[in-house]
Structures are given as structure tokens and as C-alpha cells.
Amino acid sequence: MCLLKSEKRGADGRIPDRSLGRDASSSAAEPTGYSGGSYDTSLLVKYERHVARHLWFGEERGPKKELKVVGHGLKLTSRVLLALLQQVESWVSRSGLSSLQRTSLNKIDTNLVFAFVERWHLETSLFHMSFGEMSITLDDFSCLLHLPIRGVFWSPQDVTEEIVVELVVDYLGVSQGEAQSHVHSCRGSHYKLEWLYDLFIHHRAASSWAYATRAYLLMLVGSTIFADKTFTLVETRYLLLFTDLDRRPGCSWGAAALVTLYRYLGDASMFSCKQLGGYPTLLQCWIHEYFTTVGKRGENWKPADNCGLPRAMRWSYRQGVLKVDDLRPILDELTPADVIWRPFEDHRA
């Protein structure tokens, strides 16, 4: 079953005698379920609000038919170019996150990403393709980003504004007054990415290596695997992951990042959502690996030539000419023969 399959439409381009309300599922013509979707709604319980259901009736998200998505690749590249001194680099390496310093695409193919988001289902954490279902897995995270997928899975708890201020003072070396002022300006449990970068520069100049490293790591995850829909902030609770820089590494970053991406894909699959959070580089590189005939991409090196680098570094952005409208029928026509089912067999070693 293809959720985006076309049906005979009226002169205005819409399917006649249908509505987007719940009554449509109980009409004589459609006794159960949803036209263009599952007739058993016990699993896809949120399908009524899914973007695919609205597309079936010719209703787009907006004039540009797309979500807002931001990749921090260009900014992150300019920041990473600043050489990390050994005192900082050793802690970044110990954290298990050093590969994230160089995996981000400079630009995102938004049309390609949006076409796949339309096929994601929150309840199953799967892309619904015409030939079956697929998903992004821990193995993909491990090969594309070289993030640890074994170890402790720890999701930091939400923190109060008072705790947010204490964390800034204790672990980022900021005065009480500046901490309170910054937290107030963020209107919640967040820090600004630009502010963290400024702290990193300040503490690096002052040889305050622990403070500089925490600011850098928080900025790094806030620009990649834990990027949110504000595109400018990172949640304070992630600072709790970097309080003890000397502890033995053991956090399953891949698992935490996968959960975060699933959550944002689920949000973005709803018609009312206007932004896609998470790490779009990961999604786009995943598409490039599995669907070689879909979208336009640049290639930095062939898999046989790689020197142990994260597989995401293989790909670079190339501007395509296909819009979301063009990509929808292309995805509809894909068959299992169009998929590279095991793209990383030559990479794991």
C-alpha cells in the first residue's frame, strides 16, 4: 500500500466528496480506516494527523510544501577549524564524540529529506515505502558516524531553572549574575549555541581547559545529534553528560541519538509540524547509502578507498533540480532491486 498514491481528482485537483475529519472514516464508501492509508487504525492511531493523509486530499503543508530544516555544517566546520589543543582534544576523544567534529554536510538537500519524512510513521518508527518498510538502525549510526552503540543508555532528566544556573556556574565557569541573565534570555532550560562558542574561546584563551571542553562538547552535540527545532539552542540537561570529563567512556551515544532522531521524525510527519529537528546529515547520508538512484549527491571517496573514516564523510552536498513533487512518484516506483540492502559490509572492519 502506498500512502501517497494518486486517486481520481476533480477539476480543482482535490478528491471529491471526502473530508479530513473523522466522519470520513465512517461513511458508507469508507466504513473503516482512511482512504490512502491503513484500513486498520488500531496501529497507526495518529494517521488522521499524518501529512500523508492530507496529501492524499491535495492539501500541502504550505506554498513551498516543505518543513524548515537547518544543518549546522558550515558553522560547525568554521568552529572545528580552530585547532583543539591537546588538553581539550584528549577529553573530546575520551567522550566518544570526536567523529562528530567532521561528519556534518555543509548543506542539506531539503527536498530529498522532506520526501522521506512524509513516509515516516511515529508509531512504528519506519519509513513506509511502496515495497515495504525500512528504518534507520544502530548499525547505520555506528557506520555513518562512528558513534558508540554499546554501553550505558542515559537520558538526562529535565532540570529546573535554578539547577540550570547552578550547572552554568559549576561546570561552565560563568558568574552567578551572567548565568542568571543568560538563562533568563533563553526563557527555559537552554543555552545558546553562539554563547557556548564564545565561552569556549574565552576559556581556551584563559587555559581553563575543563570549562572550554564542556562548552565545546555541548555546542558539538547541540549542533548535531541533539539539535532541536529552534536551531539556535541546546538543552541544558545534556551538560549533565559532561560533568565528569575523566570518567571512563561508556555512553551509548548512538542509541541516544537514534531515539532523538526518531522523535523528531515522528513530530515532522504530522501535518501541523513546521520544523524538523535532529541531525539531518545522518538522514541524508542514510538515503545516499541505501538509495543510489534517488537524489543528487557528491562523493568524496569510494568505499574501497576509505581509511577508517566515518562513512558520512564519504558524501558531500550537490544541488539537485528535483522538487518534492518530483520525488514523490520516484519513491512510489522504487522496488527492492533499487535498494542497497547491506551498504556497510566492507566498512565495519
Properties at a glance:
7 strands; mainly alpha; MAIN-like; two-stranded antiparallel ribbon; 3-stranded antiparallel β-sheet; AminoTfrase-like_pln_mobile; Aminotransferase-like plant mobile domain-containing protein; 349 residues
Shape, please? globular
Strand order of the largest sheet: 1-2-3
Return residue spans where pLDDT drops below 50 for at least 5 consecutive residues.
1-31
Number of helical regions: 12
* Rg computed from alpha carbons, rounded to a whole number of angstroms: 22 Å
Helicity level: 25-40%
Main pleated sheet: 3 strands, antiparallel
Structural category: mainly alpha
Strand residues, percent? 5-15%
- Chain-averaged pLDDT: 85
How far apart are the termini? 38 Å
Order of helices and strands: HHHHEEEHHHEHHEHHEEH
Number of strands: 7
InterPro entries: AminoTfrase-like_pln_mobile, MAIN-like
Protein name: Aminotransferase-like plant mobile domain-containing protein
Pfam families: PMD (PF10536)
Region (Disordered): 1-35
